[in-house]
């Protein structure tokens, strides 16, 4: 990904990013704060609503339970139900007394749907909208499971889940509260009083509790009511039946008998119907054992705040776009003079100094106007000083090369003249002539003015003359082998870079008994040329190698003549000036003495020209 490098783009992105960050942080913080507050309030509301519904259910069931309690404790009713049941002559009398007794117990208007009193022997009394006294088959009662559920409660109240009425054909849905009783205290329970209530009474309790005034759409709150065994009391049927997740929640509540708190609040995730979370509140009645479970969808709960969040986002986007437009125009006004300066810099070279007149692009900012003016003045000064700097640099390089070249120690010349005088005394005229010829050639090579480069062939010729003179001086004490390919002859190098290294062998390496040997080897590669000079002397001192390496690393120039490393530093410095970072200069110790490697890049034209010359000579 390309980095943003323009000032205008950076200003634009920084301001746009800052505004975006502020809007996002503000919207997110506000939304989280309000949504949590609303969720807490709604949770408390549905929790209170569950308590309210539970209390209304209990009020209705208490009324039904009170009627059932008065019936099973009425002596008159027990007399007419048990004692006179087998006397046909008193049947009409019993019917009238039973009707009067039940009226006196329940009062009018009826607060129930229907009352049924029956025994497992088949005796059956119906009271309410209809009144009748019948003798039914015992199998009629035994086949109904809810009758068994009532008997096992041992006279305690039993709330039977809603069902279609068993005793008529109206298909009315009823919810009943039952109690079992017996004729004689202590005997097995064999009779039941069932107080029925129209199931619509309980539906109305729920609907009125969760209804929102003025709203026509159905409420998003779901209500589920379970008995103490986990059986569903409300709703009886329809699309609001609980999901599998709700069943698990109710099962958990039902299995926590004795430990479960009367009311609680929690959060569940119902994956069977919707991927969103739901807030669940429940309350459990100590009187009836009913558990009222209220479920509120978190999406529906937070829908108003989500709409507000969307409005905030739209306002933020509009503000962001407006800010981006303003930022763009401001940044463009700031960077137009800079672009003009950059364009002028890009076209600047030696031929265009000073630059042409820059276009008039007022920025209304003093700093940018001053910058533009300073740039023009800088270019004018640069044109004046550039030629002076180039000329001074050229003269400096020439002077440095001459100074470095002149630093060579002249002691060799004095030693050679001494040898010549000795030979002259001994009348060795031919050898003296050869020595004088070599010496004069060396003096001419050194005395050439200027710092122009020479070829390796010239450097090797100068080195051979020096070796011939040293052979004359040291007789048979040393040998020398030279292996330099002819292809290297025309490679241009700085003057005096090989002979001083050979001279160092005699000055420092051969401080031991002869025989001495020097080997000069030239190599060519794709990278460049290289010459390696080895000897069988005493090698370099480790401290000296460390000192020279430190000076080479910091590119220290040769100092006064007393510097013990002047020759080596002189050669390294001139190679660096000639080849820059491609120069090769290395000092090493070998198992038999020392080795010096020098080298650098070479021009293909020089190498090819020498190869062509060699081939023409062979032909």
Provide tags for this entry.
single chain; 619 residues; alpha+beta; Beta-Lactamase; Heat Shock Protein 90; 6-stranded antiparallel beta sheet; 5-stranded antiparallel beta sheet; 18 strands; 18% strand
Structure description:
The protein is of the alpha+beta class. Among the domains are: 130 residues, Beta-Lactamase (2-Layer Sandwich); 212 residues, Histidine kinase-like ATPase, C-terminal domain (Heat Shock Protein 90, 2-Layer Sandwich). The protein is rod-shaped. About 2% of the residues have low confidence.
SSE layout and pairings?
Elements: H1 7-72, H2 75-83, H3 91-106, E1 114-119, E2 123-128, E3 132-135, H4 139-142, H5 145-151, E4 158-164, E5 173-181, E6 191-198, H6 199-210, E7 222-226, E8 232-234, H7 244-254, E9 263-269, E10 277-284, E11 291-297, H8 298-301, H9 303-346, H10 366-406, H11 411-425, H12 429-447, E12 454-455, H13 456-474, E13 478-483, E14 492-493, H14 499-509, E15 516-524, E16 529-535, H15 542-553, H16 566-579, E17 584-589, E18 594-600, H17 604-618
Parallel strand pairs: 13-15
Antiparallel strand pairs: 1-2, 1-6, 2-3, 4-5, 5-6, 7-8, 7-11, 9-10, 10-11, 12-14, 15-16, 16-18, 17-18
Helix pairs in contact: 1-6, 1-9, 2-3, 9-10, 11-12, 12-13
Question: Briefly, what is this?
Answer:
The protein has helices at 7-72, 75-83, 91-106, 139-142, 145-151, 199-210, 244-254, 298-301, 303-346, 366-406, 411-425, 429-447, 456-474, 499-509, 542-553, 566-579, 604-618; strands spanning 114-119, 123-128, 132-135, 158-164, 173-181, 191-198, 222-226, 232-234, 263-269, 277-284, 291-297, 454-455, 478-483, 492-493, 516-524, 529-535, 584-589, 594-600.
